Amino acid sequence: xxxxxxxxxxxxxxxxxxxxxxxxxxxxxxxxxxxxxxxxxxxxxxxxxxxxxxxxxxxxxxxxxxxxxxxxxxxxxxxxxxxxxxxxxxxxxxxxxxxxxxxxxxxxxxxxxxxxxxxxxxxxxxxxxxxxxxxxxxxxxxxxxxxxxxxxxxxxxxxxxxxxxxxxxxxxxxxxxxxxxxxxxxxxxxxxxxxxxxxxxxxxxxxxxxxxxxxxxxxxxxxxxxxxxxxxxxxxxxxxxxxxxxxxxxxxxxxxxxxxxxxxxxxxxxxxxxxxxxxxxxxxxxxxxxxxxxxxxxxxxxxxxxxxxxxxxxxxxxxxxxxxxxxxxxxxxxxxxxxxxxxxxxxxxxxxxxxxxxxxxxxxxxxxxxxxxxxxxxxxxxxxxxxxxxxxxxxxxxxxxxxxxxxxxxxxxxxxxxxxxxxxxxxxxxxxxxxxxxxxxxxxxxxxxxxxxxxxxxxxxxxxxxxxxxxxxxxxxxxxxxxxxxxxxxxxxxxxxxxxxxxxxxxxxxxxxxxxxxxxxxxxxxxxxxxxxxxxxxxxxxxxxxxxxxxxxxxxxxxxxxxxxxxxxxxxxxxxxxxxxxx
Amino acid sequence: xxxxxxxxxxxxxxxxxxxxxxxxxxxxxxxxxxxxxxxxxxxxxxxxxxxxxxxxxxxxxxxxxxxxxxxxxxxxxxxxxxxxxxxxxxxxxxxxxxxxxxxxxxxxxxxxxxxxxxxxxxxxxxxxxxxxxxxxxxxxxxxxxxxxxx
Lengths: 583, 150
Known about the structure:
Strand order of the largest sheet of chain A: 4-3-2-1-13-14
CATH topology of the largest domain in chain A: Purple Acid Phosphatase, chain A, domain 2
Structural class of chain B: mainly beta
Shape of chain B: globular
Strand content of chain B: 35-45%
CATH architecture of chain B: Sandwich
Helix content of chain B: 10-25%
Number of domains of chain B: 1
CATH class of chain B: Mainly Beta
Number of helices of chain B: 2
Oligomer: heterodimer
Number of strands of chain A: 26
Largest sheet of chain A: 6 strands, mixed
CATH architecture of the largest domain in chain A: 4-Layer Sandwich
Radius of gyration of chain B: 15 Å
Largest interface: A-B, 36 and 16 residues
CATH superfamily of the largest domain in chain A: Metallo-dependent phosphatases
Strand order of the largest sheet of chain B: 1-6-5-8-9-2
């Protein structure tokens, strides 16, 4: 159980659940058996996880309040949140499923249902399905963003997660952030995976000069008597969104023409019964891709952290995505006969860690690595307490990013702006919850954590922000990068998301004063490609962002940051804190 | 940046006569020309004379990994004997003209691949001058971005 004794007693008193062995089970009106219930279909079962972000231990992770979209994409999967999400998928508010898929009343429901995810619980689900179906009928896949961005992942060079994948029985994988260990460590981990029986497949990474494939582009597997061709696509914009130095000499991109060739090759030369794309493209891009590349039966998507309780259909292609942070294990059963998918059934298993027992072996593995990392990084040390909900995911603003801005500004002094990248990963700290060092690493444990201070003119700032805005709001997913807008501390602005390219941002104020194009501002950045050394202000030493945060939270103790966004959206709905997370 | 050697290495890919815009290597971004300026100067036409054609395919990344070095591949499902020359323009470059490739029946097909430098987000345009005097064109928008920083 991931509940304190006090939580348990409170719950028990409020609900009368003290009479049952498992109070969460009583509250959720659901048991392990209920969660696992699935009437199998056909001869093939695909199991998949994605965007675990190295969260081997259960956590809280709220779905976003906002996924602000350009008009053309509004209301489509990937851009629905909160109440609208529950309505779209016909999920009753207040239920376990609502807690996992919507931001609505998150803190309240978190107290009711407890933590989510956790490697050992995922293992239980996967082993359970394999036992029920038979190993020969099941293919287990992971969509990447798996080894890095938590203390236990980053500070073990991803080894902890790879060992867990081997223990659990993963078959195939693609990547994104995983590349940020750099080529040497990355290739070593791929070798470790291979020894454990898991293949890394990727068609869209090639030698920059000659165009040769770096990895095996696809894998052909006999599953349940059917021949499946599985093509891999790793994150197409890795060298742009992350420092290029980690993948020097490799070129990425969507490479949809090459993908079409592989689809045709699988069908014509290898006579496969079905073609599956395991992707880290992001849901909107995969939906657009399914219109361009013909002959893909199923896309197992990743990257944008979306949750699809039912499969999205684009033409003849089924597209599914299993959220993030270990909250879900996806299962797609297929009836594949003579080159055709005759029937399918899809479900996302919510990894409710209070209802799904931990796999003993996996639990031991996680504990061993946790202990090892804790020795040096003191992960469980309490450094403060949250007075508002700390979260990161949103299109423009988050309490966590505002806290980062405050902390960095406090550390260096004299800053006009702090920008924080629009990653979609992190954790959630509930109001009243103790903040540990581990929480800080959950938000910031990257392999290039340094904060840089530099001078930028108002015009240069605007150019960069407009550029990022186009990567988020371009109406064609092929021109997006699948993240959220950069967060700007001490800045207020308005935005027209459907405005012309590079002309969406209006009325920028820095420290309450209108931005002047020719004025020089002192800004701090982190989480992007490192700036050229001569651009970094010589009086400000680069320091890891997590060290700054840990010291600041310790100093403040109680953490209360503003909850009202610093951004006004002129032409689309934009929900505020109270509408999802309560007063 | 593309070095002179790299340029010739990639230019060798298209087995055709290649005329490179003077000043393309280490191109100065000082003198700005519009696409119409460049079309007029090179071909004596304007955008109005270009006929959009689905027979031409421009292959390039939607988002460039580096504006200094963008791979571009042009192919056309048009018999080589009907074609006089293939041109590449980057609409929003300070000097949009990039390359002229004279096509002869000996080429067998209309195909050319190279790498171009792009100052900012722009259509990458292929123009084919037909022997009958008409101009066919197709483009692909390529985004040049600073990426995830900031």
